[in-house]
Amino acid sequence: MAQSINADLNNNVIAQQALEQFTKILAPLNAFSTSFNDEAGNRGDKITILNLANTSSVSDFSGSYSSSGDTFGRSQITLDNHKVVAWHLTDTERSQSSSLELTRFAYQKGGELATAVIEDIFSAINSTDYGTALTKTGTFGIDEVANARKLAVDANLPIDDTSLVLSPTSFSTLIQDSVVGSALNYGSSDAVREGKVPSLMGIPNVIETNATLDASSVDGFLAHPSGLAVAMRYLEPLDSKEYISAKKISDPKTGLVMGYREFYDPTAGKLTAILECVYGYAVGRPEAIIRLK
Q: Which of 285, 276, 268 is nearest to 89 (CA)?
């Protein structure tokens, strides 16, 4: 019984450590239309996400109240991506170090999985699907934010729903901009004290990401949620009895979810842990993402 309790405790520690880094790295996905929950799904399932369409359904009344246009766009997503990260501990390794546990690597592995997922999703933000781009000639600062904002307004994107996602280089030069860095001008000392920009020029979310962006948008992008749709589901094993542990790990705030599996191979004398993520994404409105080159 003691071993069972210890295993449960270890699994919970692994789950929390992996989830912490997983959700932190995937935070920029909040810029898009998302369908995240901990319901079980299968690879190949299709999920439909509604988003704001760039259409007008306003017309003169002609004796009927029936709708004459679509208010929402629809993005159909196939859960056709399955990323896995695994690590193991052998009997020999465990005997040589009494403190060596699978939990020591959970935070790192959660980050590795999240990085692989988000870089795959970011690969969709390219010049083929999103033609609007702002090319900067110097360091990224408040002027570039204003110019990107204008492009968004010209495309009829609601600014109060947008997010600015930047590489560490561009984010760094932005918070060094005198307008942003000055607590008196900006109205907040967050940029100086915490390295955060809570909002800027009506853009409510300014996010720094260390994930590699596509070569055509190396500095980041300004996005409305209708630009890209992302879905994620938990993949439930067919027979969980074959595992020491098989469970979903989800963040109640964001809905982000991944799976955890742990099993022992007596032939190899090896205890293996696996984190996995099943997800899909689809291009939405092409004008809803402005690339920053």
A: 268
Residues 6+ apart with CB under 8 A from 272: 86, 87, 88, 262, 263, 264, 265
Residue 266 tokens read as 């007596």
| Nearest CA-CA partner of 212 in 150, 167, 154, 165 | 167
Single pTM value for the model: 0.86
Residue 293: closest CA among 116, 115, 127: 127
pLDDT band, very low/low/confident/very high, at 242 (cuts 50, 70, 90): confident
**Per the structure block, which two tokens stand in for 146?**
């204003």
State the Cα–Cα distance between residues 151 and 7, nearest whole angstrom.
54
With beta carbons less than 8 A apart as the criterion, state whether 6 and 99 touch. no
Q: Is the CB of residue 13 less than 8 Å from the CB of residue 109? A: no
pLDDT in tens, 58-99: 677 777 766 555 556 677 899 999 999 999 999 898 888 766
Q: Please list the alpha-helical segments (H only) found in 26-125.
A: 91-96, 106-122
